[in-house]
């Protein structure tokens, strides 16, 4: 079974290190045989999570689109920046809205059910955004996703990538390979999709 993996970055800033990290992960996942879909959260703008807004207008359409994407994939790889040693607001807001989805029309929909998740981070600092992944891991596990243990943090991100987007540092490349390999293995195990 070829696992379907959804990849996105937790930042939409032009030239964001997390975008480069997501691109590197996408390449590695494809090399390892996954069917990869790369999206940008810029294409799914959402209001700030507000239960009064949800009660008045329902789940935003972009949250529904993302929930369907999550549910339609076996795995998810998130490449996140670190804001004040935690999760960037864009990413947290997105994950929170998707967690509110329980059904699609009359059919039940659990976007985080049986979803394997791999985490990467990036920062120009020495920690490579790793502190934010602690909180991100907790949020995703609380939503019901299964987050794989290996993770990849890219420090010194401004100079971490070759012109073709490959990680220069061997240790970081090895970590990326391990995250992707573990994610693919776990996604295969958890998948409920029926191959046609």
Automatic annotation (TrEMBL):
Superkingdom per UniProt: Bacteria
Biological source species: Nitratireductor mangrovi
PANTHER family the UniProt entry points to: CHROMATE REDUCTASE, NAD(P)H-DEPENDENT FMN REDUCTASE LOT6
GO MF terms, alphabetically ordered: FMN binding; oxidoreductase activity
SUPFAM superfamilies (alphabetical): Flavoproteins (SSF52218)
Chain ranges of the NADPH-dependent FMN reductase-like domain: 3-157
The protein's name in its UniProt record: NAD(P)H-dependent oxidoreductase
Stored InterPro entries: Flavoprotein-like_sf, FMN_Rdtase-like_dom, NAD(P)H-dep_reductase
GO cellular component: cytosol
A Pfam family that the UniProt record links to this protein: FMN_red
